[in-house]
Description:
Distance between the termini: 30 Å
Structural class: mainly alpha
Number of helices: 3
Helix content: over 70%
Oligomer: single chain
Order of helices and strands: HHH
Shape: elongated
Radius of gyration: 15 Å
Amino acid sequence: MTTADxxxxxxxxxxxxxxxxxxxxxxxxxxxxxxIKALELQERYEALSRKVHAxxxxxxxxxxxxxxxxxxxxxxxxxxxxDMD
Length: 85
């Protein structure tokens, strides 16, 4: 998996979240509590994405090649850390 593939996957996930949110709005069951949770999920996704990209850029700036597997593991580990906040 290349960086372009990873970005495509992240973009696909973002689009999926937007479609799900739009569907809930159309069904008029998107209460204030749901809006807050959806916003929190979107913010967490964006924060995680920024953090992973920054970590990888830092590692690559120091000459360390970051494989696609390592990228996936970093995302997973960072998501676990965010759950503990």
